[in-house]
């Protein structure tokens, strides 16, 4: 890290955003460095491929740079950029769905399998196993930090529907991520 970048590394996000609002590109680059991987991780949990997550994160940071004067420091910068990224990704996927619906006559319902051969499941696999609506609602509320009401607004769904998707999604994640009784028995036998 160069001497001029060191000055930015010690600043709080609000200070960096204030500097970026005056046109200081190095301050904004520090914000991107700090939060880029978290934004890409959120987008991956929402269902984006690594390449899509990179593209969507870049678009979100461009929008953030253009709107940086709107950041007031009332919440965290990380939460603000994640909301922007999540909303843009949702719009992008909705456009893609409309295009796919217009070009495809029917859907055979095929979904890729999740999990690995050893039966170990991590959070990303668990999220991929959820339905689209459940995954988006859970990710927006817990990954992006949106309230149920904000998620409902972003998704243009009734608040009760979002709450139902979150509850069902969390229940399914708990069930999927909890070790099965057979797995616990096998682990005890292997360790005994």
Protein architecture, described:
- The protein has 192 residues and is mostly helical.
- It has 2 domains: 103 residues, Orthogonal Bundle (Rna Polymerase Sigma Factor, Chain: A); 60 residues, Orthogonal Bundle (Arc Repressor Mutant, subunit A), CATH 1.10.10.
- 72% of the residues lie in helices and 0% in strands.
- The protein is built from 10 helices and no strands.
- Helix 2 crosses helix 3, helix 3 packs across helix 5 and helix 4 packs across helix 5.
- The protein is elongated and about 55 Å long.
- The chain starts with a helix and ends with a helix.
Write the layout of secondary structure elements.
Elements: H1 3-9, H2 13-21, H3 25-45, H4 50-66, H5 77-103, H6 123-129, H7 132-143, H8 148-155, H9 159-177, H10 181-191
Helix pairs in contact: 2-3, 3-4, 3-5, 4-5, 7-9, 8-9
CATH superfamily of the largest domain: RNA polymerase sigma factor, region 2, helix turn helix motif
Query: Helical element count?
Result: 10
Give the percentage of residues in beta strands: under 5%
From the alpha carbons, calculate the radius of gyration and give it in angstroms. 20 Å
Quick one: biggest sheet? none
First-residue to last-residue Cα separation = 50 Å
The CATH topology name of the largest domain reads: Rna Polymerase Sigma Factor, Chain: A
Percent helix among the residues? over 70%
Tell me how many strands there are: 0
């Amino acid at each position: 890290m160069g001497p001029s970048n060191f000055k930015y590394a010690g600043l709080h996000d609000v200070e960096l955003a204030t500097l970026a609002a005056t046109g200081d590109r190095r301050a904004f680059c520090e914000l991107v460095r700090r939060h880029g991987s978290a934004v890409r991780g959120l987008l991956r949990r929402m269902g984006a491929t690594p390449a899509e997550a990179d593209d969507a994160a870049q678009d979100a940071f461009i929008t953030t740079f253009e709107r940086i004067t709107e950041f007031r420091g009332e919440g965290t910068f990380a939460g603000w950029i994640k909301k922007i990224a999540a909303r843009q990704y949702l719009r992008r996927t909705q456009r893609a769905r409309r295009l796919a619906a217009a070009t495809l006559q029917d859907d055979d319902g095929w979904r890729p399998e999740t999990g690995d051969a050893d039966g170990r499941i991590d959070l990303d696999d668990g999220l991929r196993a959820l339905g689209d609506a459940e995954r988006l609602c859970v990710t927006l509320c817990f990954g992006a930090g949106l309230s149920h009401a904000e998620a409902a607004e972003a998704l243009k769904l009734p608040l009760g529907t979002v709450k139902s998707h979150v509850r069902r999604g969390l229940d399914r994640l708990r069930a999927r991520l909890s070790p099965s009784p057979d797995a616990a028995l096998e682990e005890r036998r292997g360790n005994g």
